[in-house]
Design a protein that fits this description.
By secondary structure, this protein is α/β, with parallel strands linked by helices. The protein has helices at 12-21, 53-60, 106-114, 127-135, 156-168, 200-207, 242-248, 259-264, 277-284, 291-294, 303-310, 313-319, 321-331, 339-346, and strands at residues 2-4, 30-33, 47-49, 64-67, 82-85, 119-122, 140-143, 175-180, 194-195, 211-215, 225-226, 233-235, 251-254, 270-273, 299-300. Strands 3-2-1-4-5-6-7 form a seven-stranded parallel sheet, sandwiched between helices. A six-stranded parallel sheet has the order 12-10-8-13-14-15, with helices on both faces.
Length: 351
């Protein structure tokens, strides 16, 4: 079995599925790993360099490949290999062939990976037709929910919450704000330094003592966004798995990232800092739904507006309770803690 998450990380739905199988007799596991993330893999896990020749060898000898995004390795899929594409989020923003714009040749190259897929996972019935449209996919889709979110519905999440906070030096009673913006297609290949739409200094100053900000760059922009060292601000872009940060957080701030759907499983507040909402929707990427109509929490344009909303989380939760419940019913009805088991059952690996 070969596993790939975000081009060489130990995370996401592949990790959640691997955790259900690790230690089971008769199964051999190999993770495609990038050197920047080797430290996050358990010592006993066998890895191969995703950018080295070993990756192709592993893929071409695999019975099963599980990946959460395109496996950007040149390889020839062998007869008998099953490729499960978990994907990495419900698509509020348009993806693949549905995007407004993409660099020449990129989608054609990625389509070679799509052609290898055998099974595509979906978080919900809402997500399925959008994924089919984006990938021009007429193969099998399993509406399972996302295995990566199983932890969020399980008692173990409390232990993970405490462990993450302890590891980051965050007090048990601190209010933790997790910020997870997505990437912009027209900025990805810019050589200049990029900046976050959020002003961390203004946020921590406005919220005051007892608040902590965790900043998580999109994996495509890790290391490219400026974040000054500030008390109460942690750069968690290289933290191994976002699901663990969800456990530690009290509130999520995002823009158009699929993190909104996953964090909603916790039942905690979700806010949207979206100063470029019109530009992103009209020219950069496009949306499958109107964010302001479906969002489970307020959509604001400035850090100052964000501070105003975050100062009273209890009122925020109360005011948005019905909208948040409707959001979960539409987008995450299958994220009940057993998505991973449903996937393994489909693959004949249950038990």
């Amino acid at each position: 079995m070969v596993w790939n998450s975000f081009h060489g990380r130990f995370s996401d739905s592949p990790r959640a599925l691997w955790e259900r199988l690790a230690g089971r007799d008769g199964l051999e596991h190999v993770w495609l790993a990038h050197e920047a993330h080797l430290g996050s893999f358990p010592r006993a896990v066998r890895t191969v360099d995703i950018e080295g020749p070993g990756a192709r060898q592993a893929l071409e000898s695999a019975d099963l490949l599980v990946a959460n995004t395109h496996t950007e390795v040149e390889w020839d899929k062998q007869p008998g290999t099953t490729y499960v594409q978990t994907w990495h989020g419900t698509p509020l923003k348009r993806v693949h062939r549905d995007v407004r714009w993409a660099p020449d040749g990129v989608l054609d190259r990625l389509d070679r990976d799509v052609d290898r897929w055998d099974l595509l996972l979906s978080q919900s019935a809402w997500s399925t037709p959008r994924l089919r449209s984006a990938f021009r996919w007429d193969g099998e889709v399993l509406e399972s929910g996302y295995p990566r979110n199983d932890l969020l519905s399980r008692p173990e999440s409390k232990t993970v919450r405490a462990d993450v906070r302890r590891g980051l030096g965050i007090a048990d009673d601190a209010v933790v704000v997790l910020y997870t913006p997505t990437w912009r297609d027209d900025e990805k290949d810019q050589g200049s330094e990029l900046t976050y739409p959020l002003d961390p200094a203004e946020l921590v100053r406005g919220l005051g003592p007892g608040h902590v900000l965790l900043v998580r760059a999109h994996y495509l922009l890790t290391g490219r966004l400026r974040l000054d060292a500030l008390p109460g601000v942690h750069d968690v872009s290289l933290y191994p798995d976002l699901r663990d940060l969800y456990c530690a957080a009290d509130v999520l701030v995002t823009d158009y990232s699929s993190a909104m759907f996953d964090f909603a499983v916790t039942g905690r507040p979700v806010l949207h800092l979206a100063p470029d909402l019109a530009r992103f929707g009209d020219t950069v990427r496009g949306f499958y739904a109107d964010l302001e109509e479906v969002a489970p929490g307020p959509v604001v344009s400035t850090t100052g507006e964000l501070v105003d909303v975050l100062t009273d989380l209890a009122t925020l939760e109360q005011d948005w309770a019905l909208r948040s419940a409707a959001f979960r019913e539409t987008f995450t009805p299958l994220d009940d803690g057993d998505a991973g088991e449903r996937v393994l059952a489909r693959l004949g690996l249950s038990g």
